[in-house]
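## Example record

The block below lists the input lines for one assembly entry, exactly as stored, with component labels intact.
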Amino acid sequence: MADAPLFDTLTIIGPGLIGSSILRRARQTGTLARHLIAADCSPDVLKRVKELDIADEVTDSLTEAAAKSDAVILCIPTGAIRPVAEMILPHMKPGSLLSDVASVRSTLGPDIRALLPEGVSYVPAHPMAGTEYSGPDAGFATLFEDRWTLLVPPEGISPDAISMMENFWQRCGSRTRQMTDHYHDQVCAIVSHLPHLLAFTICDTADRLSTDLRSDVLEYAASGFRDFTRIAASDPIMWRDIFLTNKDTLLATFRRFEKEAHLMVEAIQNEDAEAITERIKRGRRIRQTLIENRQA
Amino acid sequence: MADAPLFDTLTIIGPGLIGSSILRRARQTGTLARHLIAADCSPDVLKRVKELDIADEVTDSLTEAAAKSDAVILCIPTGAIRPVAEMILPHMKPGSLLSDVASVRSTLGPDIRALLPEGVSYVPAHPMAGTEYSGPDAGFATLFEDRWTLLVPPEGISPDAISMMENFWQRCGSRTRQMTDHYHDQVCAIVSHLPHLLAFTICDTADRLSTDLRSDVLEYAASGFRDFTRIAASDPIMWRDIFLTNKDTLLATFRRFEKEAHLMVEAIQNEDAEAITERIKRGRRIRQTLIENRQA
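Predicted structure tokens for the full assembly:
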């Protein structure tokens, strides 16, 4: 027999790429929730969710949706999580669960735990999945399959609530692991935030070239540059918020990167063939381990 | 009727990824040359070429191969082109053609033109194609299809010789264009060399992390980082030579990039949300143009 739904009523606030993928998964499997609400303040988004028929109910009242729900997942830009949580939490039922999918934690955990009404739990989780597209049309039910979802519950949250969310993400197809906010942000600074900062910057540098050179650069974009432009195609508001929220860790990671980049530039400047080769080989070692881990 | 072969005897010096792809293409189409010679100083490479049966003849004598050929293409690391050209050119027949596939030009063009015996032409070309693999097993006949091959003949080379090489690369499936060495190197610094420098460096930075963090970074490698590791997987010797040969243009391009990176870091440091978004959006603009150009 199929698993009974984990929740009775589930609200997704912000049915974009991540949110609409959860809704599609819930619809397709029937094991996440019996009744699905999509809440958003944009009428266009709600209209589109209706047309796509991926929720049982759509509403622009976040508080009303929250009041009816056993679980609410905030799938909105990082910078909006705190104010929206503050607005909806007083309306949430005892025994219900708040989550978000923010890709940077910073002090979100303790900040939101401090706002929790009696009996409401907060178990945020970061699904490490995505594409460069956004909006309700961009989602798909298999987005989280075989991807990591990192659970980052603040201290003092009930183990039962944590297990529920772990189960939720496993039913979405994810592998799950639990870690602290700080460690999460360190890992993400190097696997995701710094690569994006560099990709945005190299594309920006190309955009500022003289007109002729810019157009030829685009014409002859070889794989290296093309890969960067794909990374750089991601949503600007989301990434602005990520950079701001993970500011300290990201800038510290950038400085480590910059130090290494200067050592490489110096080796090239001094025509130190051995040092250049050594640095290139270290990069390849990482690739090798990724291949061994079947992540490449 | 099929086209007659362009050349009678063609020698590929260095049957690696690029060289063995030319050989496979020549074998498959029959329109590039009647007789194919693979020359290399490594017995292992020659043995493998024989096993793969992608040449009519293999030899470790580069000068003997050159003496018999109507065209010789050097598919060897950039740094080896000048000495090998110097060694084989005195043996080449009048009316024959020397080429190479170096991805950086620097002063190769005028340097080698100065060494040309009477009646021998030099028409180098850079096929903008490749994978992260190398060696005779890595090649395939369609590697150059729909990719640009940039012809960079030095001044004073006969138009007939240039047409021959243009025809050659078009028969390999490439789109071709002719440009100066200097312009070529500027374009490649940004579309290829700087992306590789950054990719090697970010992978190197990751490799230097503490053991725990390094292993988790690898475990959770999201798409951004994974893309960088793919770029960073390329051949160290080839890239060392590219960096050294295009030193001045690459370092100038790096400095432009670094200036932009600092402006982004400063915007994050100052929490200047508008400046961050503006910079991210510029990067996306480049991606949009690539999509319009059908290069994405």
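Chain A has a mean pLDDT of 92. Residues 181-207 of chain A form the longest helix (27 residues).
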